[in-house]
Description:
Layout: E1 5-9, H1 15-26, E2 30-31, E3 40-45, E4 48-53, E5 60-62, H2 69-76, H3 84-88, E6 97-100, H4 107-114, E7 118-123, H5 126-139, H6 146-150, E8 152-156, H7 159-164, E9 170-175, H8 190-199, H9 207-215, E10 218-227, E11 240-243, E12 247-252
Parallel strand pairs: 1-2, 1-3, 6-7, 6-9, 7-8, 9-10
Antiparallel strand pairs: 3-4, 4-5, 10-12, 11-12
Amino acid sequence: MSMxxxxxxxxxxxxxxxRIAAALIAGGLASMEEHDPGGLVLxxxxxxxxxxxxxxxxxxxxxxxxxxxxxxxRLAHAGQAREDLIRALGRLPKGSTVIxxxxxxxxxxxxxxxxxxxxxxxxxxxxxxALLSDALQRAAGHPALEPALARLDFRxxxxxxxxxxxxxxxxxxxFDPMFPxxxxxxxxxxxxxxxxxxxGATPDPDAPATLAALRRHVRRRVVVKRPLHAPHVGDQxxxxxxxxxxxxxxxxxxx
Length: 255
């Protein structure tokens, strides 16, 4: 980001969310002052943190909620639902350790944890990590999610740097690198439009290096989540592919 986000807390902004925003302000990533009237703003109401994009024809906002809505339903039924991501991991026993190298909106990481895996979830972008941290803290008060949250270890970290400093061998890895949208993808979901504003035109230019690092840190496989017709990551050819309606899972074996 070229300049800090404007932070606008309402009077009923929870103290939990204020602490998260305070860390961003201390790091120069957010400010109580107005810096970019047409840019992104981080607001806080009684439900926590929301990232809003200004200067658009229609309101665009990103708010993470793991309790209600589609994601709450997905987590509530994670034990029974037929998830392509789980299929792509193969016959991975419950209790296995999986690293999610690009947690993003956190949805896949929580589904993996709900299915009984121990998950190390990494997200390098500090603003997205702040939204995730706020959502996870809110979810912690719901008994139905406690078992999954107990198996999830979320950290703000760059996967490539973190792997270089750790010699841990994981059972499997999942990786969902973001790439610039194709020109005809103008109707992407609102939350993805906000993400594109936040992350920029080339959000994961080091995806090939991250994939190579992951392949050196797994026992079984690395699953890369891609749009159905997107190219493979770098020049690395997957051993297998699992295709869904709009998503493809490229399966790489360890190096």
